[in-house]
Description:
The chain has 318 residues and is α/β, with parallel strands linked by helices. The protein has a single domain, classed as Alpha/Beta hydrolase fold, catalytic domain (Rossmann fold). Helix content is 43%, strand content 18%. The chain has 12 helices and 10 strands. The chain has helices at residues 2-23, 92-100, 103-112, 139-152, 165-176, 196-212, 216-226, 229-233, 241-250, 255-266, 272-275, 293-302; strands spanning 37-39, 45-47, 58-64, 67-74, 81-85, 114-118, 158-163, 181-187, 281-287, 308-313. An 8-stranded mixed beta sheet has the order 3-4-6-5-7-8-9-10. A two-stranded antiparallel ribbon has the order 1-2. α4 (139-152) packs across α5 (165-176) and α6 packs antiparallel against α10. The longest helix has 22 residues, at 2-23. The radius of gyration is 20 Å and the shape is globular. InterPro entries: AB_hydrolase_fold, NDRG. It comes from Anthurium amnicola. This is Pollen-specific protein SF21. Residues 1-43 are annotated as: Disordered.
Amino acid sequence: ERERESRGGGKERTEKAKRRRKQRGKGEGILERPGLRAMGESGESVSIDMETIPFGGKERVVETSRGPVSVFVCGDPEKPAMITYPDVALNYMSCFQGLFFCPDADSLLLQNFCIYHITAPGHELGAGTIPPDVPSLTVDDLADQVAEVLDFFEIKQVICLGALAGAYILTLFAMKYRERAVGLILVSPLCRVPSWTEWLYNKVMLSLLYFYGMCGVLKQFLLLRYFSQEVQCGIEGTKSDTIQACRRLLDDRQSSNVIRFLKAINRRCDITEGLKELQCKTLIFVGESSPFYPDAIHMNETMDSKSTVLVEVLKISS
């Protein structure tokens, strides 16, 4: 009997916890589609109902001259706009869930901004394979596509938040459309051509994607790009919930779509000269063990010191 009561009490506590998460910030937050899972406040993996969209937020497919792009809009459109762009093989959920599931940051961002999560073509949740006859986009095409998204939503100026490859795309956008970017928040940004190490690393990943798809070895390569060894191993040597959640989200990716984005990034140009002329406020975050640490330092040293701040974070990767 006590065992039944214990199970019943545990179920009741679980239901209360779910209600608290649902009610937090009046439903504010970024939610996943059914069947996927995200990190909860306590660190456990929890299912989230995509039918309950905060602030009337929803996913829009914007048709641009360079093809359709998925944009998840969250917040009050009357407030200042912030756009996000994730790294290769990620979408807004898998890339920024740590930020947007943090109660304080979540509440602060959604109270002050309308957030437009732009996803690289074919990287949205549940995306199908992009037809092979559709031309692959360059990094310049992707930056121009961002501008067309802003035109669609009639947005004149934005703050940009990008990670790794996404940081490069948004920096390039800010260079090409200076009057539209009022601020940059960049996480482990890229700004130079790939080093020989990165170029070879990307070539190996492209080969794995082509021949084996989103296989276990490839996912490990990507995890090394995203996370430090400490995060991957967890506190007691076990795989952390964050890593496990990321692995599951990577399973949703179509390998041919990832190939397109990775090829574009592997063919990127050096934008050092353009950085010298950027005047918008820029905040750069980089982990001390990030493979792109040298690029972040170079970017900080190149840009105007009056408008650029570098934050180095210890014991983490990208």
